[in-house]
Amino acid sequence: MRRISVCLLLYCAAILVIPIHEDAHAQGKSKRDAITIAAVRAVLDAQSDAWNRGDIKGFMDGYARLPDITFVSGDSFTRGWQTVHDRYQKNYDSREKMGTLTFSDLEIRVLSNDAAVTIGRWQLQLANSQPHGRFTLIFRRTKDGWRIVHDHTSSAP
Questions:
Q1: Distance between CA atoms of 157 and 155, rounded to whole angstroms?
Q2: What SS3 string covers the chain?
Q3: Other Cβ atoms closer than 10 A to 75
Q4: Which conformational region is residue 54 in: left (phi greater than 0), alpha (psi within -120 to 50 degrees), or beta?
Q5: Span 135-151, pLDDT tens digits
Q6: Main-chain phi, psi angles of 141, to 5 degrees
Q7: Contact, 126 vs 96, CB < 8 A?
């Protein structure tokens, strides 16, 4: 009787565990991918939190501090962490201009052990408008953690 109870318990545990494992495997998500996705999301969450505090420097912590990072928006191309920082500082020099930033519809794909790409939507809530658009970000694993090395952001008409 005890043997049947143990077998039944193991069978029930297997039924509960196997579908979760198969679902994760079917979606192509490994444990390492899940950790990377969570780390990239954490960078984006920290960026929106910093932005919403009016902290450009904190927002820029999401970018790799490298001279060759790139930012593309409209017909504008900017290279280098400091140059991207200065562009944000110039264009958003007050809390009113910064508004409240939200990211949504995020899709994060792990490309390799040290690279990931993210697409999503951004929106600013300003006093009299709600500018919004899409972005594509390339993340690299750096000594400081996951950081953006390429940002292509567009605004909706």
A1: 6
A2: CHHHHHHHHHHHHHHHHHHHHHHHHHCCCCHHHHHHHHHHHHHHHHHHHHHHCCCHHHHHCCECCCCCCEEEECCEEEECHHHHHHHHHHHCCCHHHHCEEEEEEEEEEEEECCEEEEEEEEEEECCCCCCEEEEEEEEEEECCEEEEEEEEEEECC
A3: 5
A4: left
A5: 999 999 999 999 999 99
A6: -80, 120
A7: yes
Instruction: List pLDDT tens digits, range 17-57.
Output: 333 333 344 455 799 999 999 999 999 999 999 999 999 99
Phi, psi of 104 (to 5 degrees): -150, 175
**The CATH number, out of the four listed (3.10.450.50, 3.40.50.2000, 3.90.800.10, 3.40.1010.10), of the domain defined by the range 29-155:** 3.10.450.50
pLDDT at 157: 86
Q: What rounded mean pLDDT belongs to the chain?
A: 86
**Which residue from 95, 100, 88 is spatially nearest to 49, judged by alpha carbons?**
100
